[in-house]
Structure formats: C-alpha cells, structure tokens
C-alpha cells in the first residue's frame, strides 16, 4: 500500500505548518512600539489634569508609523507614515485651535485621519434596522454631539501592543444633557494578527483597532424604538477629487468572526490604486453584551460616502494637524448604524459594541486558515479515501467471484 | 435472523370455529376482515394518531415561549429545563420501555400504559401551570418523557408487526410525516388558542388552561391505542398470528448479542440525524447573515426541510416498498444530504435549494433506515431494539447539540458545516460497511422486494423441514409434545445433542430452565 507510515504523515504536516508560519511571518513586517502621553507637554498645566493626546511610534525596518490618538472634544485617530527621523511636535499653547499646532519634524509621506464626529439616535418605527438618511425630522432622528469629558481608564504598553481605554461622558450643565457612556478603546500591534476579542479583526502592523461602546444611553423621550448610528469623518493628504471607495465582500469563511461572512472596506483612491493610502475595515457586526457571541450580536449597516463638513472638524486634531489642508485635501464622511430588524432595539440590552480598524496600505484579505484546511482535508478527505478503497474492494471481489463461477461451471 | 417463523401452531386449530363465527358475525365485509387492506388501513390511521398527542404537546412550550416566560416568570435557563427534563431521562428509559414491552406487558398493554403515562404527564404539566408550581411542571415533563419516547418505540413495533413484508417502508414514512404534522399544527394553533383563552383568564391560569386544552390531544391518542389494541387482538385471533411463535423471551443481556449490522444501523441513525436537527436549530442566523434573508424568510427556509419531508416521506416509502434495496436507498439519501450541506457551506446558491435537497434526503433516509432494524432483529426483541436505537439517537442528539453550540461560537458556521459533513461521511462509510457485512451474511438488507419474498419463503420452508426431520429422526424419549409445537433453532438442536451425549451445559444454556425462570413474568 502507498500509505506512508504515521510518523511520516505527522512530519509532512509539520513541514506544512512551518511553511505556513514562515509565509505568514514574511508577508508583513514587525514594528517596535513606543507610547507617550501628551508628548512634549511638561510645563503646560492642562496636561497634568487630563490626557488629551497619546502618541505611539511604531518603528519598522524601513520607515516609522505614527499613531496620534486625540481626545480633545471628538475622538480622533491619525495615522502618519514618516522616515525614521521624524518626530511629533505639538505646540500646546495653540493646540488645538490653531491650524498646524500639531506637526512632524519632517513632512510625512502620507497621513490619514478619522474623526468620530457625531452620534445619531433614530426612532426605527418599522423595525428595519436601517437609518433613513433623507428623513431629518426631529421625531425621527436626534443628533448627539460627542461627549465633552474624557477620562483615561487604561494605558497599557508592552512589546506586542499598546492599548488605550477612554470613557466619555457629558457635562451635567451642558445644554443638551445626555446620560450614558461612550467608551473608546484603541489598540495597535507589533505584528499582523487577529485581534484577541471578537470580532477578531485582522490587523497589520500599520493599523489601529478602534472599538466604540455605546453604554446605558437614556433614549430620548418620544423615541420608542431607538437605535444608534455614528458618523465618521475621514481626511487624507490626497486630492479631494480622489474620493473614498467602499467594498462589501462576502466570503464563505466565518471562522474568525462566527456568524459573520461579510467584510467591509473603505479605501482612499491611493490605497485602492497602489496600496499606499488609508483604509477602514470592519465586519458588519456589533455586540450587544460584554459576553460576545452569536446570540449577543446584531448587524451594522453603512451608507453612501458623503462630503465631510469643515464645521465638524473645527477644534479637532484633523484641523490642527499640519499634514493636510482640509479645504483642498480629501475630506469625506460615512454613517454606520447599529441594529437589525427583530433584535429588540438598543433598549434590549442598553449596549452596543462595534469594532473597526483603520490603517495604511491595502486592507488585509482574509483567507482560509490552516486549521480550516487541515480539518477539511482530514474530515472529508479520509472518508472519501475509505469509500474509494471499499469500492475497489467490492469491484475486485465481484471479479474474483465471477472467476469462481466460471470454474464451477466447468 | 434464524428464529422468526410464521408456522401455524397446532393448538391454534381449536380457535378455528371461533374465528369463522366472528367473520360471519361481521357480515364477512372487508372492513372487518383483518386480512383486507381496509382493516390494515384503519390500523395505520390509528397508529399515526397514537403519536399525534405526544408530538403536539412536546412543542407546546416552544410555541408559547414568550407567554410561558412572562406568565410563569421563568428565565431562559429554567425554560430549557422543560425540554432537558423530557429528553435526558429518555436516553435510558427508551431501552427500559422497549424491553418491558417485549417482556412484561406485551405490545398492546405496553402501548396503552405508555399512552396513559403521556396523558398523566401532560395533565401534571397543565396542573403545574395552573398552580404556578414550576417543579410540578418539570415533574410532569419528566413523566411525559418516559411515556412519549417509549410510545414512539411502541409505534415502530406496531408498524413492523402489522406491515412487515407489505407496506412497512411507506408506513414508517407516513408515521414520520404525521409526527411533523403534529408539531406543525401545534405551532400554528397554540398562539391563537392562547389569545382566545386570554379573553377569559390571564396570567399563569391562562397558560394552564391552554395546556389543559392541548392535553386533550393525548386523550385522543390514548383512545386510539385502546382501539388499536382491540383490533390487534382480534387480528391475532383471526389470523392465528402469534407475536412470539418461537416461545423465546427477550432478556436484557440479549442487547449485547444484537448483530453488528444493528449497531451499525444505529450509528448511521445518530451520525445522520445530528447533521439535520442541530443544523435546523442553529440555521436561522446562518441564513440571515450568509444569504441576506429576512428573519421571516429564514424561518421559511428552515422549516422547508420538515415541510418537504412531511410530503415526500410516504412517497419514498412506497418506492422503497416496491424496489427494496434499503442500503442503496440510504446511501443515496446520505449522498444527497452531503450535497445539500456542501451547497450551503461552499456556495452562495439560494439556500432554498440546499434545504429542499436536505428535506428530500432526510425523508428518503427515514423510510429506508428504520425498517432495516426489523430485518436484522427477531420479532420478540424488536421493542428492545427500537428502544436501544431511540436511546442512542437521543443521547447522540443531546450531546452533539451541545457540541454544535460550542463549535459555532468558537469556529463559526463554516466549521460547523464541515463538522456536519464529517458526520455524514461517517454515516456514508458505515452504510458501505453495512453493505459489505450484510452481503457476506445473506444480504437481506439489500435485496430487491421480489428477492426478499423468495428469501422469506425459503427460510420458512427450511425451518419446517428442520422440524420434520427432527420428528422423523426417532429417539423420541426426551421430546415432549410441547417441543414438537415449537420450531427449533440450530442453537436448540445443538444443545439437545450436547446434553444427550452427556456434556455439561452452562446453566444459562438450558432452555427448559430458561423458559421456567421467566414464565412467572409473562
């Protein structure tokens, strides 16, 4: 028989495994992470009381990625690719109101920023799970500004990742009193991998993972069936004629995010054409409880990309950063809504958690994992072999029986 | 396989005048003649009704889940108890039920007892709801489980007794579709019924009253078991049929001597059904997320498996009755199911196609697989055998359903589909092994219908011949008249020979003693 001995089988699997490891390691580079709180802000008194900017330097073999996480007014994330020498400089007296108060010591090759500009609460009377962008009546949609007060819950840094957790609440004396909590969790990683928590998004070493939790919101009076949506505003130092391209790609594989087969990419034209622009990527799933599983999940939907509003960017990192002039460079916005029909609306659990990645390059593609391929080949291949062999056996036996018959008849 | 025989026993002649009288008394019309199709058809209707009540009541809590949880103030995990207390005990009690039916009660009394247990259980559940005592409801579900699952075993045994060698496959198919009808009717009727009752009562009393009304269906089933018992007794007397012609008695240790083919049939049963029921339970989200269906559409796609099987299983049964070759039928149906799962897992083709195929495969298997047990197990052990099969199936389903939940949450639906495909491959390989095993042991399972008839005739005449030879062989000193009335297996003759030459037999080999020891229980 041509069946190899058992040790040779395991050896061949081992070789396969090692190849896969090598392949996955060589396909992306690793970066060294260094995080700084409020960089360069030693004397200014306001940096002592609160954290407004966290700067993460990620040094790779050829270049450096900078992630600037800013929580002054609306949460903003900036990704910039520079040479090794460049460093972040913030002029704290002017920040964030003067433009160019945040810059790099040498001009970045590329920069891309995302701003969580606004939250919408909408009254989904027909239980469609979708936001109607045309309906602006105040009985249907309620625009909520992002929280004013941001408190740092955690800043964790080690060799493999940097994690920042911020909780945002509304001031009690503000004109539109809002009760509830917005939590934003930002992570960046040394190397390419799936994130440890569901939805296990695939991130490269050129990306920041952003998790938005909308917790215990008191829904507006008169809104029976409240759902929430968020507006993301994106800016990049590309020509404003380029635009942002969305792609919703469905695959057979839901191994990493059980029950979710779709992957959504938003790419700037530079990312789409040559792979050196900014992108956003997410799975259209939101979790409605801390215990993340299929039962506690609902869907998300995104809407067509629109032009971003300069007004929304005022006083944020996007306006303060010298890397792009918002009047001439790419400035777009997209809405993402959370919920699906039949899920009991936001009030069922009073929690929505949604995760996306933003980064530089081409958004990573998911492939069948080695585990799936192994399981598939063992579970389906083995029985197929057995059936073919037993078919051969039956055929052979038939033939020999016929010979016996011939002998007997003679 | 060697001890079923349909030889008319000599003492049956005494009742001949009796039967003629009865036939005359009935006007000799065909409805009353147990040999006629109409008599059997009436039996079939009763056999189907017999399971209706328990299938109807089984899913009562699911049909009224929201009302249940609100009125009785239950948590989801408490609600699940209503099902787990039904299904876990039945994993063991099916065997016990089947065995008791074979050994102590006989099929008629056994069926009536099980049906009565169902009525009692369901009534206790309703009572528990009216009194708002959750433990009482759980206890009721437990009793219901004991009765309901054993009743399913009894239903199978009845079918074999009445229809073996005739329309057995069709009957199995029909029974299955009727069970489906029972649970479907439950889902569509209970909600309006609750609404109607809630105009008079509210809260837990309302739930209780609704359950009481629902329990009427089990009384209907009890009535049909009683009529069926009467019909069966009459048919037995008139046709001089005896359930247990060989005088052999089943023992619980016989289970270990069941032929290998039986165990392989049970394995196919488990490996196949785990790829159907847990899939349907988890399918809704899969259809919504992967194929973009609305929740209502996803429910339709999900239920199409049952809808199709309800229509097509009797039809497939008729086909199998006509052509025989049960193993080929099983093989094809497993292949079809593999195709349907592969379609769902590895393509974006509309899931209607996949689930419709699955419904076809599922109904074809049900009509082909269950009757095979009756061909490899002698009639006096049949209740036990179906009990074992049901138990194995329940156990497998209970465990694998838990496992499937874990697989989906950690590996996703693709992994789950691969798992189902692997289970089906196990079933497929086992079918091939059954074919190989069976063809080297006479090959009854894969005979065509015509070959099977010839085979049965030959076997009966061979047994007749054996008996005559024994009588003619002289040396009658130790043969009692009782012995002559009974056919003898090889085993029996060998033992007689051994004891004559003075060999010491182990005590359990002594058939006379065995007969005596169990007589008291009959």
Automatic annotation (TrEMBL), chain A:
InterPro entries, per database record: NCU-G1
Organism, scientific name: Thrips palmi (Melon thrips)
Gene: LOC117645292
GO cellular component: lysosomal membrane
Main localization category: membrane
PANTHER family the record matches: GLYCOSYLATED LYSOSOMAL MEMBRANE PROTEIN (PTHR31981)
Name of protein: Glycosylated lysosomal membrane protein B-like
Family the UniProt entry places it in: Belongs to the GLMP family.
Signal peptide per UniProt: 1-28
Compartment list: Lysosome membrane
Pfam families for this protein: NCU-G1
Function: Required to protect lysosomal transporter MFSD1 from lysosomal proteolysis and for MFSD1 lysosomal localization.
Membrane-crossing segments per the record: 368-396
Lineage of origin: Eukaryota, Metazoa, Ecdysozoa, Arthropoda, Hexapoda
Nuclease in keyword set: no
Subunit structure: Interacts (via lumenal domain) with lysosomal protein MFSD1; the interaction starts while both proteins are still in the endoplasmic reticulum and is required for stabilization of MFSD1 in lysosomes but has no direct effect on its targeting to lysosomes or transporter activity.
Membrane topology: Single-pass type I membrane protein
Keywords attached to this entry: Glycoprotein, Lysosome, Membrane, Signal, Transmembrane, Transmembrane helix
TrEMBL record, chain B:
Disordered: annotated segments: 1-29
Membrane topology: Multi-pass membrane protein
Keyword match Cytoplasm: no
Superkingdom of the source species: Eukaryota
Pfam families found in the cross-reference section: MFS_1
Localization per Swiss-Prot or TrEMBL: Lysosome membrane
Keywords, comma-separated and alphabetical: Lysosome, Membrane, Transmembrane, Transmembrane helix, Transport
GO cellular component terms listed in the entry, alphabetical order: lysosomal membrane
Chief place of localization: membrane
Transmembrane segment boundaries: 38-58, 78-101, 113-136, 142-163, 209-231, 261-283, 303-320, 327-346, 352-372, 384-408, 414-437
Assembly description: Homodimer. Interacts with lysosomal protein GLMP (via lumenal domain); the interaction starts while both proteins are still in the endoplasmic reticulum and is required for stabilization of MFSD1 in lysosomes but has no direct effect on its targeting to lysosomes or transporter activity.
Primary role: Lysosomal dipeptide uniporter that selectively exports lysine, arginine or histidine-containing dipeptides with a net positive charge from the lysosome lumen into the cytosol. Could play a role in a specific type of protein O-glycosylation indirectly regulating macrophages migration and tissue invasion. Also essential for liver homeostasis.
UniProt family annotation: Belongs to the major facilitator superfamily.
Protein name (database record): Lysosomal dipeptide transporter MFSD1
Organism: Thrips palmi (Melon thrips)
Taxonomy of the source species: Eukaryota, Metazoa, Ecdysozoa, Arthropoda, Hexapoda
Gene: LOC117639154
